[in-house]
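Repro:
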Amino acid sequence: MPASYAYLGPEGTFTEVALRTLPEAATRQLIPYVSVQSALDAVRGGEAEAAFVPIENSVEGGITTTLDELVAGAPLMIYREVLLSITFALLVRPGTKLADIKTVSAHPAAQPQVRNWLKANLPDALWESAASNADAARLVQEGRYDAAFAGEFAAARYGLTALETGIHDAENAQTRFVLVGRPARPAAPTGADKTSVVLWQSDDHPGGLRDLLGEFATRGVNLMLLQSRPTGAGIGNYCFCIDAEGHISDRRMAEALMGLKRICREVRFLGSYPRAEVSVADVAAPLPGTSDREFVAASDWVARCQDGRF
């Protein structure tokens, strides 16, 4: 049997569509799981080589379910990311008209992306969340709900009709998906990379977040995502999920992480991996004084001073 990838199912999700864009997916057994948690637990338990799950969308930001699962439990690492443009169809059982729809369903992350359309076209419809958009389509097929927001491609899979297509409140909306596996050596840097970490402060004090961000800023590391998540230890207790531009093998990134390790109660490294749809030519040059060459030169100068050779 080929190695397996778990993904947020059932069949017909945007997650499955995004996963199949990876060349290696053709050589893996793709197994749908009912939730992000169960897909990641399959990796932790050795049932799957990796899991493919949504982590961020351009309308609402981070997918909290995925972030929380990466924050808690046995450590996992991100190895790849995929961006997928998202537009929804309103899927119904054949013969259903817009006036017949009293209940609609989709994944919670879909609601902010169709909220205005829903208000304009189905203002009295009751929203019910589902484990995934494809699962919402399955529930419509079974008669639980009248309509589901899902990919148009899911209609045939569940015997439904696309009553409306091209639904989105924001133009060019995208969702970011990540391939997650057990911890190992990160892939070699490509020059267009991203590093993800979770930070826990040592204590709560004025300027605490500024101190964390300063470790990146003083070394010229650009942040791409910053989201706080509750730790579960009481009101006001948060950790910070961060995506930063660069690879852990870059001197500026490595030194920023060392600085964070010194001042944080805990740092969880979630991986360094290639950025989706970005080439080396698209990456801005390091700020003056923050290139690897300049870090090495500064380190050599300190060593010479210590030896009395300055």
